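Why do we care about 3D structure at all? Because function follows from shape, and shape follows, mostly, from sequence. That is the central idea of this module. The next example makes it concrete: a single protein chain, its amino acid sequence, and then its structure expressed as tokens.
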Amino acid sequence: MLVRDIGEFELIALLESRIRERNRVQIEKLRALGVEVELEIGDDAAAWRQTSARIVSTTDTMVEGVHFKTDTTPWDELGWKAMASNLSDVASMGCSPTLALVTLGLRGDIPVGGLVQMYDGMMEACEYAGGAIIGGDVVRSDTFFITVALEGVCDTGSHALSRGSARVGDLIGVTGHLGSSAGGLALLLDADAGRGVSDESRAHLVEAHNRPLPRVAEGRMLRELGVRCAMDVSDGLTADLGKLCVASGVSAVVEVERLPADDHLKGAFPGRWLELALGGGEDYEILFTANADVMESAAERLGEGISIIGRIEEGDGAVKIVDSDGSEIVVGSGGWDHFAGQHG
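And the structure:
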């Protein structure tokens, strides 16, 4: 069955029924965060009450042909990623995800079964990281797109992390690994890129691209430890660190030997792994800065889950990449630019 074969209201009812029970479990979990949902899908607007909490809000849109292709991305993984990109924004603020609104722009030839699987993927992401879907919209569109808007909370006595809080002397840390998502995308787009790559490495890198893991628990932990400056890595480390530096009025030095690129990426792309790690984008790891004492506490709590990759210096937003002897190196890693339409 295609979208053109079913009416708008029937489609909304089908998608809501698919997630109803799982979603109610998620809504019940939100009570612990002080969120009381009064009206969800089915009214003109959702309604909820929230006790004392600091609220953050984000939105992200994925457009077919720009951010994904349905012939290379399974429907459930498309749903996961659409939700995960927003969950990652909330995670990088050190907050807990709460309530999501989902808007779909649909052509008539979109398969209904694919949309059902996509909503399954969205629910899997919520069940992994938190949050519930309480409403949204469906519109006709010549271009298929998915927009998710998501709120998150932290205690009013706490602070949300921001990219404008880095200070000279801070160390720079990052969770997880860098470049694996870009490696997975390269394998999906170019069959020749996968020659000689093991099945294990291919599966690992493709999963890193299609099912990134939002670092919600890590973000909360960093906030509790005293980190004040963070953002997620969505456009590439160099590009995103540059944004953080501009917002904070500082510059950064990154040490290449400290970059956390995993063996799958290095083995699959021995000549490109550094470019991918610095500029690939869509890793959805948390990039953060903190003084040495806070960073030491973070390293003790998260262990190998974080890497210290450099330091913050005085400057005007520049990001310098250096080798083991401190010499600056230049790597082609401009990061993702929506209007350039390609990776750097």
